[in-house]
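hey m, so remember when u said the tokens were messed up on ur end? i reran from scratch. heres the input so u can diff it against urs
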Amino acid sequence: MSLDWIYYAISWILLTWHSAWDAIKVPVGSVLGTNWAWILAIIFLVVTVRVILFPVFVKQIKSQRAMQALQPKVKELQEKHKGDRETLQKEMMELYRKEKANPLMGCLPMFLQIPVFLGLFHVLRRLDPAKSNKTLYGWTVDQFNSASSAKIFTAPIAGKFGSTADELARLGANGTTVKIIAGILVLVMMGTTYLTSRQMILKTGWAEDPQQRMVQRLMLYGIPLSLLISGAIFPIGVIIYWVTNNLFTLGQQQWVLRKFPPLVTNQKPGSPAPRNPVQPAKTGGFLNRAKPAAQVPAKPAAPKVAGPKPGAKPTNPKKGRPAKRQG
């Protein structure tokens, strides 16, 4: 299956944003050795894709809430069918079907962004001045030459940590500078990737389903560590896209989690999910923190006075008082 349509779409969005920033005279190479028109074009490629995928992100949050609400039932099935993995899987699939919950929906936005990432990776990898066909995917020769020489802090966006000496020579780049800038960006990419997964897991809790928990661990630790190796082959422009996408995700998740707080928070892996979790009602206060109910002081009880016994003579309150002295 040809992916040319993805390359044309990514190129069109990238070139459109570059033309927009170039039209308003964004500085080219004069500020911190950076061609800001191309850097902003990559950043707003992220914004464009995330706006298009926002409805999918909303469905992802709803699916995560549905999966979270089903955790007590999932735990009951696990206890009921302990040791019978095949029956457990069938019962869980039936539960998901009945409750209209999709375990894979949580990963859908990420999967939909993979073609965009691969498209940008392919397009930026072509930015080699030695290429003969510079007008592929709708580019003009001037646009191709401009992007090939575009830099961030004097490192070309088409360069990568693992660029060969020949590639660096064609890009007119300094190998040490490229490695420093690419290395710093790879570390930032790993850190922001870890934070996006950690943010969601800390807010929604660890899944009771072992498979779901394994996916969470993979997202939290496996993917960031894999970037340490794969980041060496990513062009710097692709790393900028990834970091920007992570920052966008952090902000978007924070907004959603604050607007729609999850049912369970700070659940540790392996700990049982509480049954019938109750979400405390919000009563205002600073950052929507619940204010403690005011304690009304109890009124002291009046001392009990024993009544006279039946048949007893009434007592004279004046009797027994000391007589007043005569002057």
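this time it looks ok to me. The radius of gyration is 33 Å. if urs says something different then somethings off w ur setup not the seq
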